[in-house]
Specification:
With 77 residues, the protein is α+β, with helices and mostly antiparallel strands. 40% of the residues lie in helices and 22% in strands. A hairpin with a 2-residue loop joins strand 3 and strand 4.
């Protein structure tokens, strides 16, 4: 199974959509709330160069924002 990590905030609609999608497909993921966790926020910016969320890593592939088609492709769904 792929390792999925999401950098998100509680108020981000696209973050919620991504997490709901993963939950519906029974895919475990690690969620980092960058609104509260400064270390996770710094890690996200260092890895992605982005301040916007969600930033999603599926194994070594990075996705900025929620793109259902790309997520399906990376997860072989």
């Amino acid at each position: 199974m792929a390792k999925v990590v999401i950098y998100s905030t509680p108020t981000c609609v696209y973050c919620k959509m991504a997490k709901d999608f993963l939950t519906e497909h029974n895919i475990e993921f690690e969620d980092h709330n960058v609104a509260e966790d400064e270390q996770a926020r710094a890690e996200m910016v260092e890895k992605s160069g982005q301040m916007g969320v969600p930033v999603i890593f599926i194994d070594d592939e990075m996705m900025i924002g929620f793109d259902e088609a790309r997520m399906r492709e990376l997860l072989n769904l």
